[in-house]
Amino acid sequence: MNIEENLARVQKRVSDAARRAGRNPADVQLVAVTKTIPVEVIKEALDLGVRHLGENRVQEFLYKQPAFGADIKWHFIGHLQSNKVRKIIDKVSLIHSLDRWSLARTISRVAGETGISVRALIQVNVSGETTKHGLSPVEAEDFARAAMDLPGLQICGLMTIAPLSKDPEEIRYVFRQTKELARQIKNSIPEIKMDLLSMGMTGDFEVALEEGANLIRLGTALFGRRN
Ligand SMILES: *Cc1c(COP(=O)(O)O)cnc(C)c1O
Question: What is the pLDDT of residue 1?
Fold first, then answer.
């Protein structure tokens, strides 16, 4: 595995997909998903210019984060238990996985106590798979409107995870509906920020990009298969 080659290949695929969609590749932020990847290996990616890192488990994040400087933007991308919010809230740049009202309230409360403002994406479960977290698309707008009243919590957009699929065309609708949902929410709540669309992983990021993703979360494409 050669991270430099992997990154170059990813960047080429990102710009090709962006061009196909008439988009500027510079508008797409790559989040390197570092779960299970050792610190030394992650540092190779940093040497190549990667600055946005994503982790999905609180324990692992807290273990790794002190090894990195303040120039790193950490993205929390996994299901977050309310009793762990306090541990990560001032160390992450964006929480992608705001998936329930109790978590929104907890983030708001702890943000207030900590004196910070926390950026988050509402996770939507478009496919309806029961194994996936996230609000159903019909709940998302009311949730977003209510979240606007929670101090210390700043909604910035939506995140989704598509079903595993051999053929990314089969799941294009997931990304298209997420983008459309963001547009509807922005339409009905003009004061909300709906700029970020976190969608696309190693198996489906090109389709996600064609459908408007501007944050892509890539692990395997950069670091190889996880054990
Ligand atoms: C692990 C993970 C990813 C990255 O998955 P790859 O298929 O390895 O690119 C992206 N998003 C979330 C939420 C993850 O847990």
Answer: 72
